[in-house]
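Narrative summary of target 7.
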Amino acid sequence: MNPLKPHRLSRQDAVPRALHFLRVLRAEWTRFRTRRGLVLAVAASVLVTVSLGLLIAGGVRSTCVTGKGEGPCPAPLLGPDGTAVRDKYYFVHQPLSGNGGITARVSDLTGQMRLPDVVPGVRNVTEGVVPWAKAGLLVRQSLTQGTPYAAVMLTGEHGVRMQYNYTHDVAGGPHNGSQWLRLTRSGDTVTGYESDDGRTWTEVGTVTLTGLPETVEIGLFATSPGVLWERAQAFAQATATFDRITLQGANGSWRRDDVGVTLEPDGRTPHHPGGVVESGGKLIVTGGGDIGPATVEGGVRADLLLTGGAVGLIPVLVAAVTFVTRTLRRGLDRTGPPDEPHPVRLLAARAVVIGAVAFVAGLVASGVVVPVGLAILRANQNPVQPITLGTELRVIVGYAALTAAAAVLALGLAALVRRAVVAVGLAVALVVVPYLLASAGLASWLLTITPAAGFAITQSIPTFAHVDVNMSLLDGYYPLPPWAGLSVTCGYAALTLAAAALSCAPRTLSYRLGSMAAWRHRNSR
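Modeled conformation, tokenized:
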């Protein structure tokens, strides 16, 4: 063999390297599990996360004041697919048996909304509509809240929409002025139309409401979600003027219902009631509330139980840093015999070990605190935000993945800065502190640019494009979507680990050259 010709790595040579890495991995796992301090730190992480989560669950007591007095809050209203929904509006309607429809023009859409008080104690109510104020045509199975429906509507700032069964939204034209609307029913099929002049019609959408009964309720409605303040939602109402009203298949008298209206504590007075005024062939309908998914009104959310998870991460971060800094001399900085593992291989093995251990710890902690905490909340008669099995699994496994990524990040930082106290401080500052600040309503933007963005994977309240919410952790919403947030944390961990591996290269080269020189010296004798 020509000693100057580079040797190409064959497939047979690659096998021993893979086996060698497995041996290194096994050795690092043995090193971790035989160190009592590291094991205790991981156990402490699980204990802290579970204890704080169950303490929160046991301390929550929700009470509501209704016409019957103060007592436990009612369970959240559920839509056809089990999602927590709001179903409050003013409805002017008639029964429709069989096929038919309704046509009307929304000639005006105004409203009122309460803004922050200029003078303390004096309500500041002004004219205007919120972006998702709604007025239009509605057909539904019955007046029972939560039942299937379909509606075509004019909104405050989102033009014409067709919405159905609370969670579904179809965009029509971007109209904000006077608009003609039409809604037809044929069996289980409901179709919505829009028109600028009442002659040329454009289909907005067609939906199927499975199991729609022979007789349904069809008519005109108006509603408006509250206006969003910085950390609150205040009163808002919408008032719509309907004219050129025609019905097909229904020819009775108008019925009027303030669906979902709540009563004042006296049990008799409606709270922010709606109404209708009939004048010269026009119906002027006023309503407040919403027909759509519920957000914070849906009950206590599951991710609240993992609030203590940020504190629970600290012992894992300490364990990850200690795992590296205590073995730097014998690992990344060693000067021992040349048959010891390559420094980068050592670093990779330690990252795999600490990542796997952290994942299991996070999985155990979240796998206990989420289902047990939810059971405690329900046992204490708290309304709980409905959560699907898929979302619950994403929260549980996602928190475990976040724990693993945070541990690998801490390990990479330790390998870079080579000082345990500094590495722990950096890891806590990057992962834990931004989350705690956001939990207090401060600097939520940090959850977009720091590794703390990964906490978004625990968001348990779904988001919908046709519901405006305060994107604040206080309301259960993160600035990034769940998987995008976790990707940010994983990206930080990968980059930090790569930088640590690159920092090993000069020391590795120096070590290899020294080993080769020593080998040549021994063989020259």
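Confidence is low (pLDDT under 50) at residues 1-12, 329-339, 508-513.
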